């Protein structure tokens, strides 16, 4: 989970989030290189008093600085597309979790196991234990096995919600009348916190998600 002064991405707990972080760093590096180059040129030009009276046009340099940015953009576009299709790839899931967004809580269904269903509400601040996280902990956690491919189906009962777990790289909108699908693979045990990330109403900030990842034989 995110802790104080954590401005970057959270530590990844799934292979897809790892790829997302790699892509973020890759894009950021290109961004920094362009910013430094352009910043340097602007700085040097600003303090330069010389001009060339005969220079009116330069076909070659204009060709270069038109085509070069297009090529640089391709180096971002292709990895981005690769990741986009990778995120939607469903790879023989060993279980399915259904998640339904309500105003303002999540309800879950484990349809593989005799129709287990439960609601997951945020624990109010005045009922919080000493080790609980304010506005983040829930009364019923989603317990999932680690090291297995999990499919999640997301929908909503009233307005649009979004089932989002940053550490797992999952973000799916729950839309009334639609069923959205994605999948993830948790590669370590632990608690993973998330929040709804669609502006779904007055108590939008109070419908967190907690995943408890456990070894398969404990699950
Ligand atoms: Cu549900 Cu925001």
From TrEMBL:
SUPFAM superfamilies linked: Cupredoxins, Cytochrome c oxidase subunit II-like, transmembrane region
Record's keyword annotation contains Transport: yes
UniProt keyword annotations, A-Z: Copper, Electron transport, Magnesium, Membrane, Metal-binding, Mitochondrion, Mitochondrion inner membrane, Respiratory chain, Translocase, Transmembrane, Transmembrane helix, Transport
Cofactor(s) this protein requires: Cu cation
GO molecular function terms listed in the Swiss-Prot or TrEMBL record: copper ion binding; cytochrome-c oxidase activity; oxidoreductase activity
Cofactor note: Binds a copper A center.
Lipid bilayer topology: Multi-pass membrane protein
Parts of the chain that traverse the membrane: 27-51, 63-87
Listed CDD domains: CcO_II_C
Localisation: Mitochondrion inner membrane
Top-rank taxon: Eukaryota
Stated role: Component of the cytochrome c oxidase, the last enzyme in the mitochondrial electron transport chain which drives oxidative phosphorylation. The respiratory chain contains 3 multisubunit complexes succinate dehydrogenase (complex II, CII), ubiquinol-cytochrome c oxidoreductase (cytochrome b-c1 complex, complex III, CIII) and cytochrome c oxidase (complex IV, CIV), that cooperate to transfer electrons derived from NADH and succinate to molecular oxygen, creating an electrochemical gradient over the inner membrane that drives transmembrane transport and the ATP synthase.
Family: Belongs to the cytochrome c oxidase subunit 2 family.
Protein name (database record): Cytochrome c oxidase subunit 2
Encoding gene (name): COII
């Amino acid at each position: 989970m995110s802790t104080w002064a954590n401005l970057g991405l959270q530590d990844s707990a799934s292979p897809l989030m790892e790829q997302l972080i790699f892509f973020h760093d890759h894009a950021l590096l290109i961004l920094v290189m362009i910013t430094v180059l352009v910043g340097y040129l602007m700085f040097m030009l600003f303090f330069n008093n010389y001009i060339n009276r005969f220079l009116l046009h330069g076909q070659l340099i204009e060709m270069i600085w038109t085509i070069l940015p297009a090529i640089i953009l391709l180096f971002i576009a292709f990895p981005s597309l690769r990741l986009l299709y990778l995120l939607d790839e469903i790879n023989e899931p060993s279980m399915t979790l259904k998640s339904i967004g309500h105003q303002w809580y999540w309800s879950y269904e484990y349809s593989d196991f005799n129709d287990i269903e439960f609601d997951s509400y945020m624990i109010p601040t005045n009922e919080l234990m000493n080790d609980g996280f304010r506005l983040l902990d829930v009364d019923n956690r989603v317990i999932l096995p680690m090291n297995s491919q999990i499919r999640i189906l997301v929908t909503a009962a009233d307005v649009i919600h979004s089932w989002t777990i940053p550490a797992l790289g999952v973000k799916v909108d729950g839309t009334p009348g639609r069923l959205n699908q994605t999948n993830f693979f948790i590669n370590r045990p632990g608690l993973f916190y998330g929040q709804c990330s669609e502006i779904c109403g007055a108590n939008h900030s109070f419908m967190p998600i907690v995943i408890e990842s456990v070894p398969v034989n404990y699950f």
